[in-house]
Amino acid sequence: xxxxxxxxxxxxxxxxxxxxxxxxxxxxxxxxxxxxxxxxxxxxxxxxxxxxxxxxxxxxxxxxxxxxxxxxxxxxxxxxxxxxxxxxxxxxxxxxxxxxxxxxxxxxxxxxxxxxxxxxxxxxxxxxxxxxxxxxxxxxxxxxxxxxxxxxxxxxxxxxxxxxxxxxxxxxxxxxxxxxxxxxxxxxxxxxxxxxxxxxxxxxxxxxxxxxxxxxxxxxxxxxxxxxxxxxxxxxxxxxxxxxxxxxxxxxxxxxxx
Length: 258
What we know:
By secondary structure, this protein is mostly beta strands. It has helices at residues 2-12, 70-75, 144-150; strands spanning 30-37, 40-54, 57-68, 78-87, 93-102, 105-114, 119-124, 129-134, 163-170, 173-189, 192-201, 215-220, 227-233, 238-247.
């Protein structure tokens, strides 16, 4: 269950937007999230943005990590690495990396996107096999979705009850990742009281989640659109993830002093 929690966190923190044409982020941005399972500190997840060059194209190199700590590591050890190389002009991914170790279950994959042919070549470095799959136009990987959505130009028009969807490629499958906007709320964080936008990702019910809409996300209502808090009801217990640390923001972080 812990591995699904960390994967969910990496997925849910993609719920961020910016109404400006200029990127809402830049190289040097870094987030760290503390994950709680009930009263237990289950683990951490981080996101970092760097500059890189692929095929003479300037790209953002995004690195996401998730890992368990303490007693959670004793019961279920997780050490996951996700990477994405994103075109600075189109904000579409060139390449992704997935290296995971989840309680002995491992996977080592690389994916290479061909935007012209709308295909992705997936290489399995454990079995030395590869396959090419068709994908819809502008399909994102799990990390590039974060930065693609942060620059969505339609955020000013969104109203409570509206939803936004993108095509996301993960585990050799393209799925529609849909986010419903609930409204705005001021919440208390370790940084102070922050004005937020509230979203509810539509997740599949089953062994992990109680129902389709069991996850709620709070995003800072400023130019940065930081993911601040995530809550989810699970089949057994609940999870809460809070932004613990950050640096390298492109815009000032707004905290309400009153």
